[in-house]
């Protein structure tokens, strides 16, 4: 059971979400606007938050930023409008762990939420592996923890989300080969695919690749888009052919 905060201004949807999560065995607190959400966040600690971005009084993005300052590791799933691509990118950059576009499938919401809560219970702040052999070695001084969502570039920690880390791990493990979109999506699915479920939006992968590229800026590493096939990790050293 998790203690969840649901922030949604649409009353029907808010009550529906609360009922759904209560039935799934969770304890829920609801907020109808950004101001109420912030009051709850200040007063209590939650295991996870479902946050609508379009909110009265204080918008969801502001709630997300303030929440992140206070609780860097609290899992947050954002709800966005179907056409809100910028919102999704901005939300992920502001520290959301996952997103769903409205209207969404309730089974998918529960699956994503469970997966997010499970990831959050990982000891993400454990010390770096000391023995080199424990880490996955990549090119250009890149190292990845084989189990936890952590990585280092020449000894400096890179701040990665679980999905970014899973993506990078695939790219490193399949160096010199193309990693297909399907490989990445399969690695991301913490639960068996639901029949008829839409799974991850196809443009979600592009968002994560974009973010990961940015985090590798300044290193010799780049993620190359192989049109129609997938992605490949490359580094800027001249190959002798
Ligand atoms: Ca709304």
Bound molecules: calcium ion
Strand fraction band? 15-25%
Radius of gyration: 19 Å
Name the structural class.
Answer: alpha/beta
Number of distinct helices: 8
- Which sequence of SSEs, written as H and E, runs from N to C? EHEHEHEHEHEEEEHEHHEE
* CATH fold-type name of the largest domain: Rossmann fold
Tell me the helix content: 25-40%
Question: What does this 3D model show about the protein?
Answer:
The protein has 241 residues and is of the alpha/beta class. It folds into two domains: 3-120, Response regulator (Rossmann fold), CATH 3.40.50; 134-235, Winged helix-like DNA-binding domain superfamily/Winged helix DNA-binding domain (Arc Repressor Mutant, subunit A, Orthogonal Bundle), CATH 1.10.10. It contains eight helices and twelve strands. The chain has helices at 11-23, 34-43, 60-70, 85-93, 106-120, 162-173, 181-188, 202-215; strands at 3-7, 27-31, 48-52, 76-80, 98-101, 136-137, 142-144, 151-153, 156-158, 179-180, 221-226, 230-235. Strands 2-1-3-4-5 form a five-stranded parallel sheet, with helices on both faces. The protein has a four-stranded antiparallel sheet with strand order 6-7-8-9, with helices on one face. Strands 10-12-11 form a three-stranded antiparallel sheet. The termini are far apart. Residues 124-133 and 190-199 have low confidence and may be disordered. The chain binds calcium ion (CA). Calcium ion (CA) binds next to loops.
């Amino acid at each position: 059971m998790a203690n969840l905060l649901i922030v949604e201004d649409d009353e029907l949807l808010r009550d529906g979400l609360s009922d759904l999560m209560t039935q799934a065995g969770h304890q829920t607190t609801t907020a109808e606007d950004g101001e109420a959400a912030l009051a709850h966040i200040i007063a209590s600690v939650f295991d996870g938050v479902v946050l609508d971005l379009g909110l009265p009084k204080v918008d969801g993005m502001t709630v997300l930023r303030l929440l992140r300052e206070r609780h860097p590791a609290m899992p947050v799933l954002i709800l966005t409008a179907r056409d809100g691509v910028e919102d999704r990118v901005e939300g992920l950059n502001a520290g959301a762990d996952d997103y769903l576009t409205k209207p969404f499938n309730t089974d998918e919401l529960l699956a994503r939420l469970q997966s997010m809560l499970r990831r959050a219970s990982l000891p993400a702040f454990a010390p770096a592996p000391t023995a080199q052999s424990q880490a996955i070695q990549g090119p250009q001084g890149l190292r990845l923890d084989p189990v936890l969502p952590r990585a280092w570039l020449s000894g400096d920690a890179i701040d990665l989300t679980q999905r970014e880390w899973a993506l990078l791990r695939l790219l490193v493990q399949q160096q010199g080969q193309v990693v297909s979109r399907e490989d990445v999506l399969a690695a991301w699915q913490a639960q068996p695919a639901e029949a008829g479920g839409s799974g991850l939006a196809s443009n979600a992968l592009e968002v994560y690749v974009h973010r990961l590229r940015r985090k590798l800026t300044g290193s010799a590493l780049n993620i190359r888009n192989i049109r129609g096939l997938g992605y490949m990790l490359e580094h800027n050293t001249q190959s002798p052919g």
